[in-house]
Amino acid sequence: MISVESLSAGPLFGLPLSEMWFGLIFTLLATFLFLDGFDFGAGAIYGLLNTDREHEAVLAAVGPFWDGNEVWLVVFGGTLFAAFPAAYANLFSRHYLLMFGILGALILRGLAPEMYEQRHDERWQRAWSVAFVAGSVLAPFLLGVFAGNWLVGNESSVSLIGVVVGFTLTLLTVVSGAAFLRLKAPLDLPERVSTYGQFAVVGYLVAVVATLAILAVRLPSGLLTLLHPAIVVLVVTSIGLTAGYIVAMRRGESLLALGAAAVLTYGLIAVVGIIMYPAIDPATGATISETIVSTLPLNLMSIAAALLLPLVASYFVVLYSAFSGPISPEEAY
To answer: For this protein, what is the EC number (predicted)?
Structure first.
């Protein structure tokens, strides 16, 4: 029987809850970057398309999903705040201007399609198309800047590692977005969308190498940290997945390509988590054991998470099942 006394005595069932919540935070972040990532990538590719029909196809493809996908960003932030409140406070206050930039980009990305459909005026729609592309590119770029600064503990929001990680993440969203668009609108969009994805995945791999080179110099343990067996496996796997993605896109197997993009995304965030562990805030040197909440609320949150997260996941299963398959030719945003 679970009582207040038992919940206060120690971790639930003796589980390593600090480590589990640390892993959960990065899993939620990766989930957001993949699910909303292909929306960002679709928005970036939107700027490379020409006709109204192509633009409408992109908006129709992402329309049912993008606002739901953003839930994972809220869950990520809420989880970080709930489990590691001191790290949350330090991290977000240190980069509050960057946070406002991310929120502004997300608002612009969400507002632009709605405004685009309000008037069928060429100048009006061109302006909101630019806004849609800008929000779709800036959001992942600024998130990457945030992640890079978090990883190495930069106090300032502008840094070389932040910019490089920003480009890396932006290219990865284009990789996901191209596969998603070819899956959802194969007849409404030109074949060159597949080419954009292939170029992006090669650029992503180059950006990853550049990121690792900077980390080898920037991290206290340098190259030794990057030679962690799990990181080596993930990097080697990424090379194989890059080749697999290109082959899948050339063969028109968009679902396989999207799966490869998903593994690349989760692998990238796993590398970040492995490098950072056991620190949760490298800028201050604070570790997960030092910043985790006390035992009672931690146990209660763990029970709540075990009940609620499957419900959230079930909602997304229903959502993606309801809107599965390619969009119809007459479908609009």
So the answer is: 1.10.3.-
